[in-house]
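Could you please review the protein record set out just below?
***
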Amino acid sequence: MREVCIIGGGPAGLFAGIQAARQGAQVTILEKKDRPLKKLLITGKGRCNVTNNCDADTFFANVVHGAPFLRSAYSRFGAADTMAFFEGRGLPLKTERGGRVFPVSDRAADVADTLRAAAAEAGCRVVHATADSLLLQDGSVTGVRLKGGQAFPADRVLIATGGLSYPGTGSTGDGYRLARQAGHFVTPLTGSLVPLCCAEPFVRDLMGLSLKNVTLTLSQRGKPVYREQGEMLFTHFGLSGPLTLSGSAHLSWEGPVTASIDLKPALDEARLDARILRDFSVQQNKNFSNALDRLLPAKLIPVVVMRSGIPPEQKVHSITKKQRQALVTLLKQFTLTVTGPRPVEEAIVTRGGVQLKEIQPASMRSKLVNNLYFAGEVLDLDAYTGGFNLQIAFTTAYAAGNHIATEE
């Protein structure tokens, strides 16, 4: 019976183990934390967005890095297969806005329990241990050396250790170190789907303000790299929320970055000016600072007043066309200076990883070292929020798990 050692007890590790064990392999999963799937429990704000109920074209449109590499594996195990797996094991799922798929119970723990039960039923053995290094001989991996020095022989080894985000759950980058030991190149590691820090001190005053139906444009070296309409959030350090997280995946941090928010994307400048004139016409004797409550959230008004250049005490009836045009421009282009991302430890996923050209895309097998495989976030793959990153984990794990047990 083929001995398979999987390093990492996250979604990719457990799912790969289930597939390999079902194919007749003797599977041991090494997990450094006291139990597997710690990170899964915090995904989707504790609800676990397991996949996205979409067609293949939509899935690949949401993969930011590595879409061509994934096509072969996804054709064998896609979103519909993930849903069928969980529902087939008695976990009802539901599809919400944007195709996001959650358990009906809204409990990530139920997803984790389903995976753990499936792994146990398939015969996987989970061992609480930390992999220190790979055992390599004549161009092949022959097992794993554990911290403490114990050798753990194996016919096949799968690295599924996750990335660098949320290190408290066990994702501390061990897989990158092991990959480098085997001679693999690891592309630069940064956070993806990560909040952004801004230079403007007033962001602290806006902390907690959520903006809906706005358009965020992120530009790098003066060129737009991301533009989307949706929801975002101000924090004490800058910007977060769905638009910001998705936009961060497009930033390389080579050159200055600016964020521009269109606070009224449904109105062009002429119609916005007409709207402001209507508001002002019924508040002619008010101070400017007291005449924006129909247009903006209360928390945003003092900042807009400050940035508009219009004196707060100026009466509305005396505001000039030039001043009004400056206000319109500000509302359509509320700009911020992005100084960088929050630390990778706060990112939802890690951008970068084991270089894809060194991996066989149908099987996730190393092209450099015999009997070595990879799955999940340790690879240079990442996508937008919405269940796409977990689907990448399941897709690559399915490919690796099936081939690791059957390939000669």
Summary: Residues 7 and 30 are 5 Å apart (CA to CA).
